[in-house]
Amino acid sequence: MKPIAKSSKLASVSYDIRGPVLDKARQMEEEGQKIIKLNIGNTAVFGLTPPDEIVQDMIRNLADAGGYTDSKGLFAPRKAVVHYTQEKGIRGVTVDDVYLGNGASELIQMAINALVNDGDEILIPSPDFPLYTAVVGLSGGRPVHYRCDEGAGWLPDLADIEANITPRTRGIMVCNPNNPTGALYPTDLLQGIIEIARRHQLVIFADEIYDKTLYDGNVHTSMAALADDVLFVTFNGLSKNYRSCGYRAGWMVLSGEKRHARDYIEGLNMLASLRLCSNTPGQLAIQTALGGYQSIRDLVAPSGRLCHQRDLAYELLTQIPGVSVVKPKAALYMFPRLDPKIYPIADDQQFAYELLAEEKVLIVQGTGFNWPEHDHFRLVFLPNVDDLREAIGRIERFLGGYRRRHFS
């Protein structure tokens, strides 16, 4: 029988957050081994659950959630998102500019699919959240990575963004607060990116899913609040700030220069209709979440669990010889660097595989985030302090063995 092959469109697609090393971890778990997972920001498995008022409101309304909604979503949660954009300083947003989706991920795919023709280019940060790169490729486009500068706190390099623009460039993806680095971008940098988009008539895609997960009193600025003459497509949702990953409740907001984007918006409306609507129970959580008590503030406060775990992970990692980390200002991750002079890693996926096999700790290698060198990995600091201390202790032990093997 003739083999059934996957689509050639998948040839350049990878998602190593749930990739081959995770497959090995699953196999080990099936054999009865316990794995400490530092690979994914799935809050619930670490005991970080949705606020009770969200859960109770969904339960109360579940009996009425059996039908399709409008393709863009229910009116009340979309109106709540409009109010949220007003709080963020984004002007001119109406209910019709808001699309609800099965998480921000679905809406990112929709936004790219509606824009990109074969051969078109989208600028994407490196390191990136790998969904961006995958979606552009699946849309027939070409992902072009601009470099974020570790020496500057992982801020995007404006000169590199400019240098990568060609006649085929259609948009710029910005992830702020950033996954995987935990960077938070200052207003002047955001204005610099906007100026580039303005000169080259590019769409700005702003992923702001971590906009409330901020440490040390830092404040998030929404890009779309800074200009009206550029088209902004802003993504957000409940998964991280409200520890509701499984509810798949996200939103997309169009703002700025919409007059010349009517054809693109027609495409978005078509794609929204094709998937009928996002899940109704998830939609029902949005209004309650945005209007209720913002418990994320307690978690990121100096005495809060997330802040304490961030500080501990940073302290423990930076004590390991040859390991350096830019301390995250936001989000749930850090992106440590392994000094190549001390850790001459030729294949960082193999490195992650060996760490898993020897120490039963699961991380994601840096190249999984389209970082070009084999000298970084991403660590999630969601486990409680005891598990985090144990996990990083095992990483330290593994790295000590690595040094001995390569320099004895």
Can you tell me about this structure?
The protein is of the alpha/beta class and 408 residues long. Helix content is 38%, strand content 16%. The chain has helices spanning 20-30, 52-61, 75-87, 103-115, 130-138, 158-163, 187-200, 262-274, 280-291, 296-300, 305-318, 348-359, 385-407, and strands at 36-37, 98-102, 121-126, 142-149, 155-156, 169-175, 203-207, 231-237, 249-256, 323-324, 333-334, 337-338, 361-362, 364-365, 377-380. The strands form four sheets. The chain has an eight-stranded mixed sheet. Strands 11-15-14 form a three-stranded antiparallel sheet. Strands 1-13 form a two-stranded parallel ribbon. β4 (142-149) and β5 form a beta hairpin. It is globular, with a radius of gyration of 21 Å.
Strand content: 15-25%
Total number of helical segments? Answer: 13
Q: What is the averaged pLDDT score? A: 94
Distance between the termini: 53 Å
Helicity, in percent? 25-40%
Strand numbers in spatial order across the main sheet: 2-9-8-7-6-3-4-5
Q: Can you summarize the main beta sheet? A: 8 strands, mixed
Residue stretches low in confidence (pLDDT < 50, at least 5 long) are none
Structural class: alpha/beta
The radius of gyration computed from the alpha-carbon positions, rounded to a whole number of angstroms, is 21 Å
Strand segment count: 15
Order of helices and strands: HEHHEHEHEEHEHEEEHHHHEEEHEEEH
Give the CA-based shape.
globular
Oligomer: single chain
